[in-house]
Amino acid sequence: MKVVKSDSTAVAEPLAAPPRWLVLLLATATGLNAGNLYYAQPLLAVIEHTFRVGVGAAGAVVTAAQLGYVAGMVLLVPLGDRVERRELVSVLLVISTAGLAVAGLAPAFWVLVAGSLATGVTSVVAQILLPFAADLSPERLRGRIVGQVVSGLLIGILLSRTAGSLLADVTSWRVVYLVAAGLMALLAVALRLALPRHPPSTGLPYRQLLASTARLLRDHPPLRRRALYQATMFGTFSAFWTTIAFVLTSPPFGYSQLAIGLFALVGAGGAVIAPAAGRLADRGLGGRLSGVAFALAALSWALSWAGRREVVLLCLAAVVLDMAVQASLVFGQHVIYRLDPAARSRVNSVYIATFFLGGALGSQAGALAYHMGGWDAVCVTGAVLPAASLAWWAADAWRGASRRPG
Predict the structure, then answer these.
(1) pLDDT tens-place string over residues 221-273
(2) Where are the alpha helices (DSSP H) in 136-220?
(3) Fewer CB within a 10 Å sphere, N or C end of the chain?
(4) 3-state SS of the chain: helix, strand, coil percent to 5?
(5) Which CATH superfamily is domain 15-403 in?
(6) 384 Cβ partners below 8 Å, 6+ apart?
(7) Which residues contact 192 (CB under 8 A, 6 or more apart)?
(8) Per DSSP, what are the bridge partners of residue 12?
(9) Which of 278, 27, 24, 30 is closest to 149 using CA atoms?
């Protein structure tokens, strides 16, 4: 171990990489946990029919989960610097189990939305485990290891759609939530037994902890920049995956839940980019390649529009979009985890809260755009978001910001 100082706090940095089985467990855990937010996306057409609500209203299930996630990021994730992380993870997983069970048994639409909100708040376990992985990694390997865990997280997000569709096709959408509740219970036991104890990095009282989180946003321009970049990227990602089920169940496709699940599985192919993005970030290329990621995300919407009657182009668009979003996420995390080693949970809290706020807005904007103007309107809405980040990135580069961290 080596010791670095940050905010007058001595932080032990590991010299050796964590064992591969632990990295795999962290990647699996983040994927299963993050998947809780997305089981509903391919099921919205079925949920709409069950409760007889409109398309725009059905999108509230996903939006509520993402807004709950933002609340959990702001209020709970900073505790990862203040309390022992294994204890915090265990408590949150138990509450997630209860929230998913409530959603699966919901007798009315508002109960489903409430269960989704509660699940979103406590599904921030993934964002407690990510800085945990960073803390367990030596600096020279941090980008690669965090990239591996991020790949698990994003594979979980995408495969949750496939798993949800396939399970709903042979049972019902309610079983999807109940199975997810069982997985969270098993995960609570596995992580409790396997995670090493990790002492808190600060003794600040809770109120001061939250105040210090706000100061991090004020004091670190790269954190602000990266958080806003990723908000637009996750907004465009969420707009696509919230509305694609409506497209695929409508003419000319008319796909079943099984076919929608297989489509989501194709999209998961984009997850292979995360470890490679981590290695590129370790080589100092993340800042320059971020613009490429933004451009690819915007290009994916041109493919999406061209594929409104051709599923092969829609599949290609999904892979390109997912690769762009994942690369941008890893590039950003490589930057922010270097800003303050003693406050990685709080830094991650700001970053991912902004990220998921963008996702919540993107989900609702996509649903409303589809309601008002169909897939053409969604494509325009989705393309504007990464284009805005590309313009901002280019302006920063013109002013020389590309030479600063981030």
Answers:
(1) 889 999 999 999 999 998 998 898 888 888 888 888 778 777 877 766 676 77
(2) 142-170, 173-194, 206-219
(3) N
(4) 80, 0, 15
(5) MFS general substrate transporter like domains (1.20.1250.20)
(6) none
(7) 86, 89, 90
(8) 3
(9) 27
